[in-house]
Amino acid sequence: RSSYSCCYFVLPCCFFDFHGKYSRRQSKKTQYREYLDFVAQVGFVCGFHVEEDCLRIPSTKRVSLIGKNRTYPPAESALIDKQITQFINNRRTCGAGITCDRRVGFNHKDHCEGVCEEAGSELPEDETETGGTTWMPGFQPREKVEQIRNCASLPREFVDEVVLNVANLLLNATPQKSCSNMQDGNMNSWNQGESLSLKEVAEHLNKETLKRLKSEYGGLQTLLKNNHQVFEVLNGRVHIRDWRKEKPSSKTKPEVKRRLSAEAFKTRLCWFFIHHPDGCSLPSESCPYAHGTEELR
Hints:
One of its GO terms (biological process) is tRNA methylation. Residues 264-294 form the C3H1-type domain. The protein is an alpha+beta fold. It has helices at 31-45, 77-94, 108-119, 125-128, 156-171, 198-203, 207-214, 219-226, 255-265, 271-275, and strands at residues 8-10, 48-54, 63-70, 196-197, 231-234, 237-240.
């Protein structure tokens, strides 16, 4: 509807209509094929010769629909725009939508007459006019720059403070646990702390912190999972990660490559070496993180 000269390309994927999920009406077709036919139907109602192509991409949803040429002259633009509006409103009000099953390649004018008859009501003037008026009152397009809300864009200082508070909460929840470290034949105790539910952890955070986290997708759980060096979240419970229990990679590498990757691996400081009261549970040569800035690569 943006202009008579526009063309379009669409790669249908998720099954949605104009105002919600697409409802199936034909059990003889696969859901994907029926949805492709619906998207093609939209193109025909909008006055396009719709072409179908199969893309060479590694995906099961690779059928694209292209509209390059119109089925009507520019002088009929106002009439077609009314038919488009009726089509949209009919799908919005009837829920089940258009029940006719037209095949790709049918006569465009016959189809549009059927749509207009099924709409069955006059439309408000502001929705049938073209030339700069609002097509869909109340429609709010998404921002040009999509906001990242997976806690990745939160200030580093804020994230570090939450991580430290939650870690201290787990460490002080119960008397220290003694975890045996059998490396080099020595018995060393290392406090892994207690596990708490996400709800219990949230109850100990201040309101300002929780309010800030609620604006992010997944909130507190996402932030803790993002900091997987420190935490492990399993079945809704938060644990401090013990790197001695982490399974080594199943992929075997030649000794030279293994040595080179280990040297290049330490790009971040070890949180436990800096903040944990017992330090890191692993010796420097076994820890994937740097024990001090001199180990950073």
